[in-house]
Amino acid sequence: MGKLLSVRDLKIEATSYPPGEPPRRISIVNGVSFDLEKGRVLGLIGESGAGKSTIGLAALAYGRGGVEITGGEVTLDGTDILKLGKSGIRGLRGRRICYVAQSAAAAFNPAHRLGDQVIEATLRHGLLSRDAARKRALDLFRMLGLPDPESFGRRYPHQVSGGQLQRAMTAMALCPKPDLIVFDEPTTALDVTTQIDVLAAIKHAIEETGTAALYITHDLAVVAQISDEIMVLRHGDMVEHGPVRQIIEQPVQDYTKALVNMRSIRHDEAPDQSGALLRMENISASYGDGVPVLHDISLHVPRGQTLAIVGESGSGKSTLARVATGLLPPSAGRIEFGGQVLPPARKARSRDDLRRLQLIYQMADTAMNPRQTVREIIGRPLTFYEGLRGSARVARVKELLDQIEMGSGFIDRYPAELSGGQKQRVAIARALAAKPELIICDEPTSALDPLVADGILKLLLRLQEEQGLSYIFITHDIAIVRAIADSVAVMHGGRLVRFGPKSRALAPPFDDYTDLLLKSVPELEIGWLERILATRRRESAGH
Amino acid sequence: MNRRSIPLTAWIGFAGILLAFICAIFAPWIAPYGETEIVGDVWQPADAQFLLGLDNLGRDLLSRLIYGARTTLFVALSATVLAFSVGIALSFIAAVSRGMIDMVLSRLNDLMMSIPTLILALVVLAVLPQSLTVLILVIAALETTRVFRLGRAVALDVAVMDFVEAAELRGEGKLWIVFREILPNTLSPLLAEFGLRFAFAILFVSTLSFLGLGIQPPTADWGGMVKDNKDGIIFGVSAALLPGAAIAALTICVNLVVDWLLRRTSSLKGGRGDG
Amino acid sequence: MTGFPATLPRPRLWLRRRFPLLARIAERLLLSILLLLTVSVLIFAGVEALPGDFATTYLGQSATPQAVANIRAEFGLDQPVTSRYFEWLGNALQGDFGSSWASGNSVSEQIGNRLGNSLFLAAVSALIAVPLAVGLGVVAVRFRDRLPDRLINILSLAAISLPEFFVGYLLIMFFVVKTSAAAFPATVYDSMSLIERLQVIALPVATLVLVVLAHMIRMTRAAILGVMSSAYMETAELKGLGALRSITHHAAPNALAPIINVVALNLAYLIVGVVVVEVVFVYPGMGQYMVDAVTVRDLPVVQACGLIFAAIYILLNMTADILAIIANPRLRHPR
């Protein structure tokens, strides 16, 4: 097998335009090198800002939004594609190298039929006749397991689901029989139960067609299923590069080890889960249009414990949080807090009711007023609930900053001057300032990079131990549930499909949905995907 | 924010606006002659004594331009300030309370906006008595609709953010939410809108005066001066062009500043700041 | 199909889901009719709100009680407000706007000619301005942040700051007084040929185009930039498509709706512009007629002109919205 793609000392820069300041150059990739042989798959992995997508696009000699390739070589079969002229590059793109974007929903043109878009590059490059291209598209739709492959191509992008779009985009990339496909986080935006199907389809297609691929993701477990080699990136530098088995079984660098050994958190469930700080009974709810989104849900959280509510998008898990906080009064059912019935609507709740139940949001960016400093953000609940002012208030804000392991040096910063993890910590401090009994955490770590998220989870567990807090932790991530929960509620389609202590909820015998959900979560284990697919085949054959 | 990041165009804009305001405020001290004082022949050409020449009644053009700045700026500024106070108040009430209040106010606004501004102004001015107050009120009413629309959109953008919900969940009152949470985050676009509305008011009052429906003679105002002197054009007398140029120059200056404000208005939602 | 609706708004929801395109167009049509009716009420009521009785205003000094009563009877002012409104509206719908207070002539007759003149002026301006604006907007996007774009930005910024009358007189000064290249005033009469008419309205059209163009370019540029920065344009580029194919096949169908919106919005400026430009060039159109009527408070004329201008504006906006609805693939091809 010969070398297909060779990247040498690649340097990429961008111009950043901070508001109110002169523009400045920042380096995104600082001299990365690698080789890719024909038919092999290289996984590029790293946190956001690691430069992995930028490198992927550089393989198409493309820089997104002001990004500029400033040094190095990218050679395809011996030709440096960075030195090619415009028409030379056009001859490569969509013909020898293709791209699969993270959001196929945005990447497809809403004005044209999927089939026409899938075969467009093949036709424009004169690779096949229209009929032959249509035939190939049909074969690809079949190979990727798309429903009604014969009529699929006649549909418009808005007429099919997200998972199907992602597969259609893969078909679009495969159609011209390219030598190399760049997959840019193709399953990141999907739910886990959809992700596994798309992942399987992509893996199958890569094997069938023998194309080489760069597979970009932040999820080590995903990349372990699909790649032959893995390259770990951080802040635009290569950290480690090796065969999949070596990277996940014997990582050399500390950063890789941290990635592999993530979720080292352990929390044993509380033996006694009888009492209830918050109890929701027979809750049903709907939004303005009258279509019910929650159906008869009953669950409770004991004092000092964590209830994890797990489900995919649209399962109603966030709606349940809105009901608990009183933002969405339920259409039926009752909520008890500390043995007392809680008024359903926020406006009817007393200030003390509000104080005892706090909420932490998924996006720390929008959860804090960008025009207020940390001092005001954390200080306001102190003034509002306790009437604290002046030096007493400052002292308490500093104390809270210490509790979230940030220190009083941050007191006069604005949110924009904090990192993602720091913002989420400040949001936690704001919740703590109210001296709450229960904190509802609505996916507080899902927008964060894995190592940062880990830190947040540890902090939450420590605070629980020290202050006897109760949490309702809403998440789509089973690994987090395993790590921190005492009890677990599984939601699907607005219904509670499972509720109980962690040890029982996450152990067989399972209901169908929980079984599917648990089995869809990628595990950091080579051959996991094949194993799951084989089990599925066996089961469906057995039925 | 440092001074070097303000572009040259914005400086020119600021300078022009400042000059106009100085003329307006200190008109009696700056103007060489009186506002309505007849000092020579009809359309007497410019010379050392009358730097810009005389107008259709033999009044000094430069002096009338300076006094005209006073009237034009006064009407435009009061109309804009009025429209802004009312428009922002109503739009924020609509955005924060939603529901019926929002619906009624928005539909009413849509209705007002479904008639072209000048046509609506003409219909109203045909009925109401001619006075400075009426003129200001009419312009302000028309401007209010535009301010309302933008104010509501901007406030809604912020009102749906989690930090506003967080404040509601804390139990904060409406006033706190409007003044402490929403307003500070809308200042930039609102400031730019104020500039845009001010520019529009200058053009609008001038247009009405030009049509003979705005400020009434003998008070000097730029639009009216164009009307007074327009008959001279075909004789090659440029007296009508000077006040026209003054309107244009001032509006350009305001727009230059607005252009800069709009450019530096950064998105509130922002990124995570990593590259 | 599953069951029909228990609650009230469901039929509409059902209709929207089943025939989204037709449902939205029908909704838009209904809205326009409603809007027109409300505007007619507004314009009629505006006159009713005239301080003092308008028979007295009409007669001025010679208002003896008997004369006032006669006038009131003559204009039907002794009837209740609602019946007068419906009579006025009914007549207006049949093209009868009553007679002018100032001249006693039929308003409809006067308007008939002038409306044609105004529409001619506006249509010629639009025909020139729209393609020019879209073309220059595309140029600005094509050379984004480079010299042509900056030039277009600065010049259009200056142009939107110029009052129409200033541009008009500037053009007259230059083309009539200094070079005698064009005619002034822009008088048109029935016996004129099309060519002659076009020659006469050259300067008014130039004025209108200049003023409308600036707004239109700026908004077209923004609309196209929005489309060009979308992910599917990146997809097109990464497919190795040429610039021409990308623009005609991928950008154009999606840019259509926003550009239609821009054009419609700017035709409103045209309506306002027409009024001023007609006064500047002494052109016998509706705008001048209306301004004269406002000056002498000839209310039937003001009402008629106001209603017609508003109706044209509302219809233009409706047409644009309906075109934009049709241009939306999501509505044309429902799930």
From TrEMBL, chain A:
Query: What topology does the record note for this protein and the membrane?
Result: Peripheral membrane protein
InterPro entries in alphabetical order:
AAA+_ATPase, ABC_Ni/Peptide_Import, ABC_transporter-like_ATP-bd, ABC_transporter-like_CS, P-loop_NTPase
Family affiliation: Belongs to the ABC transporter superfamily.
Query: PANTHER family this protein is in?
Result: DIPEPTIDE TRANSPORT ATP-BINDING PROTEIN DPPD, OLIGOPEPTIDE TRANSPORT ATP-BINDING PROTEIN APPD
Q: Where is the signal peptide?
A: none
CDD domains under this entry?
ABC_NikE_OppD_transporters (cd03257)
Please provide an example of a Pfam family that matches this protein in its UniProt record. ABC_tran
Q: What keywords tag this UniProt record?
A: ATP-binding, Cell membrane, Membrane, Nucleotide-binding, Transport
SUPFAM superfamilies, per database record:
P-loop containing nucleoside triphosphate hydrolases
| Compartments (UniProt record) | Cell inner membrane
What is this protein's name?
ABC transporter ATP-binding protein
Q: Name one GO cellular component term.
A: plasma membrane
Superkingdom of this entry's organism? Bacteria
User: In terms of one coarse class, where is the protein primarily found?
Assistant: membrane
- A GO MF term: ATP binding
SMART domains given in the database record: AAA
ABC transporter domain residues are 7-260, 278-518
UniProtKB/TrEMBL annotation, chain B:
Do the record's keywords include Transferase? no
Task: Please classify the protein's predominant subcellular localization into one broad category.
Answer: membrane
Q: Which GO terms describe its cellular component?
A: plasma membrane
Pfam families linked: BPD_transp_1 (PF00528), OppC_N (PF12911)
Signal sequence: where? none
Annotated membrane-spanning segments are 12-31, 73-96, 117-142, 194-213, 233-258
- Asked whether the keyword Membrane is assigned, the reply is yes
Q: Could you tell me where this protein is found in the cell?
A: Cell membrane
- InterPro entries reported in the protein's UniProt record: BP-dependent_transpt_permease, MetI-like, MetI-like_sf, OppC_N
| Membrane topology recorded in Swiss-Prot or TrEMBL | Multi-pass membrane protein
Q: Which GO terms of type biological process are on file?
A: transmembrane transport
Q: What keywords is this UniProt entry annotated with?
A: Cell membrane, Membrane, Transmembrane, Transmembrane helix, Transport
**Domain ABC transmembrane type-1 per the UniProt entry, residue ranges:** 69-258
SUPFAM superfamilies attached here?
A: MetI-like (SSF161098)
Family, similarity comment: Belongs to the binding-protein-dependent transport system permease family.
Name of the protein in question: ABC transporter permease
Automatic annotation (TrEMBL), chain C:
Q: Where is the ABC transmembrane type-1 domain?
A: 115-320
Q: Which UniProt keywords apply?
A: Cell membrane, Membrane, Transmembrane, Transmembrane helix, Transport
Asked if the Swiss-Prot or TrEMBL record annotates the protein with the keyword Cell cycle, the reply is: no
One Pfam family hit: BPD_transp_1_N
InterPro entries from the UniProt entry: BPD_transp_1_N (IPR045621), MetI-like (IPR000515), MetI-like_sf (IPR035906)
Q: What is its main location?
A: membrane
Q: Does the keyword Cell membrane apply?
A: yes
Entry's Gene Ontology BP terms: transmembrane transport
Q: How does this protein lie in the membrane?
A: Multi-pass membrane protein
- Which compartments is it annotated to reside in? Cell membrane
Q: Which GO terms describe its cellular component?
A: plasma membrane
Q: Say which family it is in.
A: Belongs to the binding-protein-dependent transport system permease family.
UniProt protein name:
ABC transporter permease
